[in-house]
UniProtKB/TrEMBL annotation:
Chief location of this protein within or outside the cell: cytoplasm
GO (cellular component) term, any one: elongator holoenzyme complex
Stated name of the protein: Elongator complex protein 1
Keywords per UniProt: Cytoplasm, Nucleus, tRNA processing
GO biological process: tRNA wobble base 5-methoxycarbonylmethyl-2-thiouridinylation
Location(s) in or outside the cell: Cytoplasm; Nucleus
Pathway(s) the chain acts in: tRNA modification; 5-methoxycarbonylmethyl-2-thiouridine-tRNA biosynthesis
Organism this protein belongs to: Dicentrarchus labrax
Region forming the signal peptide: none
Pfam families noted in UniProt: A-sol_ELP1, Beta-prop_ELP1_1st, Beta-prop_ELP1_2nd, HB_ELP1, TPR_ELP1
Gene Ontology MF terms: tRNA binding
ELP1 TPR domain location: 910-1032
Region of interest called Disordered, as start-end residue ranges on this chain: 1127-1156
């Protein structure tokens, strides 16, 4: 039994918890597939190992030969003997110290300890020696760009050569100088005065370095930086016997020497994308990996999980993208009980190093790795060659181990592997930034895989597969008890090699399913594991993906199989969709998920190149992560967005279109996130999405789509309190409670009030009400949702809700809900402040269970401005209420008490008049003032004149009263001032003021009413005749002025001696006519210019098309075909149009001449429009207007008009040859007479022909005035 060590952390809760540390990903390394090949056999054992980047085959050098081997086929591609050529001794004692694939030369370069540098041609299998060093070679290392090679010799020197093996320099490894990067001392204190740690100052006087370990091979190690500008050499110092690291540049110049590091070991590897050099150091009490900068100073470390005398680190290897550091361990003592021979994969995040995978190769020395290297092209592919010539290729992928539950019992667990510990975070309870966690699970061996139980309500239980083949099962307590305990049942997996079992899935309490390698390299075996150790095997190709009741197998990571475990006998079959088609991906996917799209089961897959597929359909190509939760697909993209799409509302094509769109302004499915964000998990039956930023910090976001879907679900099920609390916390506009379904809301008003059960919450809801429909603006409805119709048409939403809530609260408990009732009155579109104040005033008596009047007034003052409330209280004419409001305000009693005392001393009607006038409620003031008697009529008349309340005033007095007559006269005077003399005459006529009425009618030219009033007076016959003549001539003059007949109007003015009309009507009409003519000319010229430019473009396009047609080999055929088509078109049109009326024929003609760009007759339409403009401008009556303007000394206006008209005529006359060229005019015979056989076809042809003729301009008309120019 394992001993469980569980550490629980404080579950600090919060919407967002950001870590300030850098770069952690809550992801594990998952073995996607492994390829094991043991067909290669040979004498001796492998010594050096390389991977061909172009073919993926392996280059293996042994004591006797060099071999190119393809592990996928198990075939030897090429092979050459090193002993036959004399490069290695035949007794097998030779050593190959370096091997490098040179893709450009299609060769492999190897170096032997004897000193030979040999090139192996991979095409001809020929070996060629390019040089030899007498003292022998200890290492060979090529630069990343394969332009330089560094050799270390037996004489402790470094030889640098080009790729053509031309020597560049040779220097000694051991240099007394520090290098060009030597530190400069500025004299800030002495070494003796500095702090020296726990060892004390005495340690500085005894700087003794332990020599290298006994097992150190004492060979130099060379490693290059990723850009090839620097390389580092680790060698044994001749004086101290300890290792020292020196950094050299590309020219072979020493840059820096490492500080003395006691216990530094042989492993050395420069991080490709960084400035750190990794090595290992043995301390008195631990063994650690240390990092050095390029200046030789230490910069960080982490401790290896074993004692210092247990294992030795043979090598360190960074993968190509610097995300994984492989630590290659070997036994120090083969007889040790806890001997280790393994390869460990480490990842860093938030300055914490995680041991993600540990490949335990056991105690058999033949199964131990002889060579280990990363693939140069695929960063997550690791190659291992054992001493028994077995090659194993591991393809890794990143995965987030999250609990698969979809119910509220699932704690949204995420498990992170860290060596022999599992760091578990329960995101339903808390958000803990890595490397911290909610609790830890301590195991006896390093963990390789973690899986959660796939059973509803029990998905918090997890199982762990460790490197020794043990499966440990942990269960979790109650909902809030996050600790786990180890169960009794432990499954042991027998494995002959590391990670013999992958894709572990926990289906039932005692049933596990996994995949192991098959007998052939291209086959795999499904294992059904039970606690009784029984294992059932079913052969299938490649790897596994999970489903609850059946298991989906991904064959070649492209095609899928169903492994049915519920059948009497488990079976494997092709997985097909509802139409019977096989489900497959076009490319391999590293992450898959099962979902339902529009009710049909579908499989989603994400490739390592960010392509998302639904079956064989590509949905998007910029996806960084995705997760399926309930009915939603959540994704993050490389464009820094998080999308949340409801799968039941979309088809596969709809999903594809949604992911391709940028989203609208209020698109609830789209949310901007920080660059590089990834989804960690989604809390089931909740609105929380956990994202991890590139810095490593976690953020909890409530995605709008998830949130609104949950709110809609709550509101439909009448869970108003849950919806309200969520909306209040997450700042969703509370209008959504009503806008989602107004009918349901109004039908369940009492339920809403009962569930909210809080005065403050009801008040908050009321105060946020506004007329905007949030389901149309802020939170648009899903396309499939029906549009909700307002249940009370014609009324404003705020008024409907306020009235409904107020009436319900008054019927339930008016005393308890008194404050919300006040809010409902105040919040209406027209606030009912007087009613609210009156209700507050009524509280001055003792009312059991109700708030006090002071408290209610204080609340009302919180809602309404104190000055507005004071004015409204004054408008109630209740001085007790006014005093109560004034006392709660900050007004000075010296300001309002004298005014109130003055009001109290007035007669009631005059008092209310004074109050209303003070509040500027003039209509009410007039109403009260009209009741104050005769002595206040003049004051009322003055108020009417000031505020223009004539109509209201007339309604307050009887028609036979003198006040009515006085008001009518005042009103008539006002109407005359407003140029409404005829209406003024009507008022005066009906109130028996005929003289004033006659004058008003005469001034308004209302001759009929004027004659009637004149006869009513009555006027003498001579005056009546004179009045009739005056009225008649005035009407005639005004008609002539309106028709712009200036000279005739002027003649009548002087004939009837009505010079007053000149000032009142003629001159303003002249200026208006000038302005209108000028504006009309500008508009016509602008339109003419635009049509003229467009005509040139159309003609150019048609000419180009004609020339293109002539260049075509089939031009004659096209010409004939177009003629036939044209003729048939007109013939068809003739047959239809012949039966039409002349009006319809003209309409059809106008449709032919369309100015729409691209229409067939656009050029003819433009010519017709240009001709119409010329004709219209040419016929303008400018001459008479110019003469009238000059007569009344409007010279500037006349000059401007004459100039504009002249320029317009010149522009149009100059354009005639361009618009109607001679060739075009002569190409058609003029139509002068109608032929006897005239028909519709002839008529349309004649119309088109007339368009080709230019308009005739009146060049002989003299319109200009000499006095103006």
């Amino acid at each position: 039994m394992f001993t469980n060590v569980i550490r629980e952390l404080h579950p600090g809760c919060g919407l967002k918890w950001k870590s300030v540390l850098q770069g952690c990903k809550m992801r594990n390394l998952k073995l996607l597939k492994s390829l094991r090949s043991s067909e290669l056999q040979g004498p001796g054992s492998p010594q050096c190992f390389a991977v061909r980047a172009d073919t993926g085959s392996l280059l293996v050098a042994s004591h006797y030969s060099i071999t190119e081997y393809d592990p996928r086929t198990g075939q030897v591609v090429t092979e050459a003997s090193l002993t036959a050529e004399g490069f290695l001794p035949e007794d097998g004692s030779g050593v190959v110290v370096g091997l490098q694939d040179l893709a450009e030369l299609e060769s492999a370069c190897l170096a032997t300890a004897g000193g030979d540098v040999v090139l192996f041609n991979l095409n001809t299998c020929q070996l060629e020696c390019f040089g030899s060093v007498d003292s022998g070679l200890t290492s060979m290392s090529w630069s990343p760009d394969e332009e330089l090679v560094v050799l270390t010799t037996g004489q402790e020197t470094i030889i640098m050569m080009t790729k053509d093996f031309e020597p560049i320099t040779e220097v000694g490894i051991h240099q007394d100088d520090f290098g060009e990067g030597k530190f400069i001392t500025v004299g800030w204190g002495k070494k003796e005065t500095q702090f020296h740690g726990s060892e004390g100052k005495q340690a500085q006087t005894h700087m003794y370095q332990n020599p290298a370990a006994v097992w150190d091979d004492r060979r130099p190690r060379v490693t290059w930086r990723g850009d090839g500008q620097l390389f580092a050499v680790s060698a044994i110092c001749l004086q101290t016997g300890a290792r020292k690291v020196r950094v050299w540049n590309r020219e072979g110049v020493l840059q820096a020497t490492s500080e003395p590091i006691n216990g530094l070991e042989q492993a050395l590897c420069w991080k490709p994308s960084g400035s750190l050099i990794a090595s290992t150091q043995r301390h008195p009490n631990k063994h650690s990996v240390v990092f050095m900068e390029k200046n030789g100073l230490l910069h960080g470390d982490f401790t290896l999980p074993f004692s210092k005398d247990q294992s030795k680190v043979k090598d360190l290897l960074w993968n190509s993208d610097s995300t994984i550091l492989a630590v290659w361990l070997e036994d120090i003592h083969l007889k040790c009980l806890h001997a280790v021979s393994a390869v460990q994969l480490w990842m860093v995040g938030n300055y914490h190093w995680y041991l993600k995978q540990s490949l335990d190769f056991g105690r058999d020395s033949q199964k131990a790795p002889a060579c280990v290297c990363w693939d140069p092209e695929r960063p997550l592919r690791l190659h291992v060659m054992t001493r028994s010539w077995t090659s194993i290729t591991y393809d890794w992928g990143y995965t987030t181990e999250r609990s698969p539950g979809l119910d509220a019992a699932d704690n949204a667990n995420v498990a992170v592997i860290d060596g022999d510990k599992i760091l578990v975070t329960t995101f339903r309870q808390c958000v803990v930034p890595p490397p911290m966690c909610s609790f830890e699970l301590q195991l006896a061996s390093p963990v390789n895989q973690v899986t959660f139980l796939c059973q509803p309500q029990r998905t918090n239980q997890l199982a762990a597969l460790t490197s020794d083949g043990q499966i440990s099962v942990y269960s979790q307590g109650g909902l809030y008890n996050v600790s786990l305990k180890l169960l009794e049942g432990i499954v042991t997996v027998l494995q002959e090699e590391p990670l013999a079992l992958r894709q572990l899935l926990w289906l039932e309490d005692e049933l596990f399913v996994g995949v192991s390698c098959g007998l052939l390299p291209t086959s795999s075996t499904i294992l059904m594991l039970r606690s009784s150790q029984d294992q059932e095997k079913y052969g299938v190709k490649y790897s596994v993906k999970n489903h609850v009741k059946s298991i989906t197998l991904q064959k070649k990571i492209c095609y899928f199989l169903h492994f049915c475990v519920d059948c009497p006998k488990p079976s494997v079959e092709d997985w097909r969709d509802s139409s019977g088609c096989s489900i497959n991906f076009p490319v391999p996917c590293v992450q898959t998920a099962l979902c339902s799209i529009s009710g049909e089961e579908c499989l989603l897959g994400l490739t390592d190149r960010s392509h998302l597929y639904a079956g064989d359909t590509e949905l998007a190509s910029n996806i960084s992560s995705f997760a399926v939760c309930n009915d939603f697909l959540l994704i993050t993209t490389h464009s820094h967005t998080c999308r949340c799409l409801q799968l039941s509302m979309l088809s596969v094509k709809g999903l594809q279109a949604a992911l391709a769109s940028d989203g609208g302004q209020n698109d609830e499915t789209l949310r901007r996130v920080e660059r590089g964000s990834r989804i960690v998990t989604v809390v089931p039956q909740d609105t929380r999405v956990i994202l991890q930023m590139p810095r490593g910090n976690l953020e909890t976001v409530h995605h709008r789509a998830l949130l609104l879907a949950q709110l809609r679900k709550w509101l439909d099920s009448l869970r108003f309190r849950d919806a309200f609390e969520c909306m209040r916390k997450l700042r969703i506009n509370l209008n959504f409670i009503y806008d989602h379904n107004p009918k349901i809301f109004l039908e369940n008003i009492e339920t809403v009030i009962t569930q909210l059960n809080s005065i403050n919450h009801i008040n908050l809801f009321l105060t946020e009400l506004k007329e905007e429909d949030t389901t149309s603006s802020m939170y648009p409805r899903p396309e499939s949702s029906p549009v909700q119709i307002q249940p009370v048409p014609g009324q404003k939403k705020v008024d409907v809700v306020c009235d409904a809530l107020r009436s319900t609260m008054e019927s339930m408990d008016p005393n308890r809900f008194f404050l919300p009732i006040l809010t409902a009155h105040v919040k209406k579109t027209v606030p009912e402040l007087e009613i609210a104040l009156q209700k507050v005033h009524e509280l001055r008596g003792e009312t059991p269970g109700a708030v006090s009047a002071e408290e209610a007034l204080k609340y009302l003052l919180f809602l309404v401005n104190v000055n507005d409330l004071y004015d409204h209280s004054l408008g109630t004419y209740d001085f007790d209420l006014v005093l109560m409001v004034a006392e709660k305000s900050q007004k000075d009693p010296k300001e309002y008490l004298p005014f109130l005392n003055m009001l109290k001393s007035l007669e009631p009607n005059y008092q209310r008049y004074t109050i209303d006038k003070h509040l500027k409620r003039y209509r009410k003031a007039l109403h009260h003032l009209s009741k104050c008697g005769e002595e206040h009529f003049l004051e009322a008349l003055q108020l009417v004149k000031e505020q223009k309340l004539y109509s209201e005033a007339l309604r307050l007095y009887t028609t036979d009263s003198p006040h009515y007559k006085a008001l009518s006269c005042a009103y008539a005077q006002h109407l005359v001032e407003q140029q409404q003399a005829e209406q003024a005459g009507l008022l005066l006529w009906r109130c028996r003021e005929p003289a004033g009425a006659l004058q008003a009618f005469a001034s308004s030219s209302s001759w009929r009413n004027a004659i009637c009033v004149a006869q009513q007076i009555p006027l003498p016959p001579d005056q009546l005749a004179l009045l009739a003549r005056d009225l008649d001539c005035e009407e005639a003059i005004l008609a002539l002025i309106t028709g712009a007949v200036w000279e005739e109007a002027l003649r009548l003015i002087y004939m009837h001696n009505r010079q007053d009309i000149t000032e009142t009507n003629l001159k303003p009409a002249l200026l208006d006519g000038n302005d209108n003519s000028t504006a009309f000319l500008e508009a016509q010229v602008a339109t003419f210019t635009r049509h003229r430019a467009r005509l040139a473009v159309v003609r150019e396009q048609k000419e180009k098309a004609r020339l293109d047609m002539l260049d075509c080999p089939d031009a004659e055929l096209y010409s004939e075909a177009s003629s036939v088509m044209t003729g048939s078109k007109y013939s068809h049109s003739n047959s239809r149009i012949s039966s039409r009326s002349s009006k319809n024929r003209r309409k059809a003609e106008r449709k032919k001449l369309s100015l729409k760009e691209g229409s067939p007759m656009e050029d003819r339409a433009l010519m017709y429009a240009l001709g119409e403009i010329i004709t219209t401008v040419d016929k303008m009556r400018v001459h008479n207007l110019l003469k009238a303007l000059v007569l009344f000394q409007f010279d500037k206006q006349a000059e401007k008009l004459q100039l504009a008209y002249e320029e317009a005529l010149q522009t149009m006359e100059a354009a005639v040859p361009e618009v109607w060229p001679e060739g075009l005019q002569n190409s058609q015979a003029p139509v002068n007479t109608i032929q006897p056989n005239f028909n519709t076809h002839t008529y349309i042809y004649a119309c088109f022909t007339l368009v080709l003729a230019p308009p005739k301009m009146r060049n002989g008309v003299k319109w200009k005035l000499t006095v103006v120019t």
